[in-house]
Design a protein that fits this description.
Elements: H1 2-8, H2 11-37, H3 42-97, H4 99-110
């Protein structure tokens, strides 16, 4: 046993033990790295590339398909609206074929009166149809807007009369 104790504390023994411990640490670190590397193999990388290329290759056609489906839905909705409008117009045409309806619409829209009846209308207007002309105070002679030396003043516009032509004409005599 004395030999074992002596070997145990010799420099060579100590170096050998340190080398074994270091080798064990290196081996453990290499297995950890290999375990991390083994998660992504060449097959997995190839599969990921194939999937990405499929996604890229199919993205545009799928987008076109979805856009066309939306356009088809819009056209079907528009077609149904057109059919409804045609049906309404057919109903209106059938109503106009009826003489009673046509007479009623003529009386309402064109204000026709049947022979032997009196025309009457109720007006809800509170002001007269044509306003009375305004009196303008006289101005100095020769200050008309036509530039012809007229002594008649130009009345102010009320916004209801049509505008006078822009042509300067001499007064009629």
């Amino acid at each position: 046993m004395a030999v074992k104790d002596r070997d145990r504390f010799s420099t060579a023994t100590r170096i050998r033990i340190i080398g074994e411990q270091t080798a064990a640490r290196v081996y453990r670190s290499q297995t950890k790295r290999q375990a991390r590397r083994s998660r992504l193999t060449g097959r997995a990388a190839l599969l990921a590339m194939v999937l990405c290329s499929l996604v890229v290759a199919l993205a545009y056609p799928i987008r076109q398909y979805v856009a066309q489906r939306a356009e088809i839905a819009d056209l079907r909705r528009e077609q149904q609206e057109t059919r409804d409008r045609v049906e309404e117009l057919r109903d209106l045409k059938a109503r106009w074929q009826d003489d009673a309806y046509a007479e009623q619409q003529i009386r309402l829209r064109l204000h026709y009166v049947m022979p032997g009846r009196r025309a009457s209308s109720s007006s809800t207007r509170t002001r007269p149809v044509r306003p009375a002309p305004r009196r303008v105070p006289p101005t100095a002679p020769g200050t008309g807007t036509s530039g012809t030396g007229s002594t008649r003043p130009t009345p102010p516009r009320t916004g209801r009369e049509p505008a006078a032509p822009a042509v300067n004409r001499p007064p009629r005599q």
